[in-house]
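User: Here's a chain of 215 residues. Predict its fold as tokens.
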Amino acid sequence: MLLLPNQAKLRIMINKNFFSVLVRCLCYTLCLLSCSFLTSCSFFGFSEEEEELTETIKMRQVEELEITFSRASLGGEEFEHYVLSGEVLFYECGAVKFGKYSPSEKGIKPVPRQIVKPLRSSINQTLLALDDTSKLRPAERGSALSDAGLFILSWREVGKSTEKSIETSVDAIASQTKFVEKRINHLVSIIRSVPANILCRNREFFGLKRDSNGI
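Assistant: Prediction complete.
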């Protein structure tokens, strides 16, 4: 069948358009495949702000967190006590006399801005690790130097009425032989670094240290 000149031109244009669309579809498909393998794909990937937002959504929010630990020393039984409420930390230290805490130093301080984010992240990681508390070693509270000491961590999450707590020993957290102990130890080091002064002149409490980047 013979085509008129205009009909021939129209068919050529249709073929060109079809070919152009086909090429675009192939390029788009290749782009999708490449982005699925490259995590740094900027076109379909998340921005840093979106990643931080996603991490924040996954964070387990805590209304209050309390840490108390004590252990026998040559001069008697010593203790440190911390209560984190929001971004404000209450702290005290001293001696244990007749089974009661007798503080010699105490204070309240807002958590420094540069520590807030690392502290929240450490709390979240610690709580995730504490989902399995069966691996915690038992506490040993006593006046003998060989006793491993008492370590108590309690917390209440936002929107929940019940408080959770765990008990283990100071020596267990200081040894960091288990994953959950490493998480708790790191949290304690950040908490202990918030007060500007060295509480009761104990830079290190039987292996529990202050974070090297703390204030």
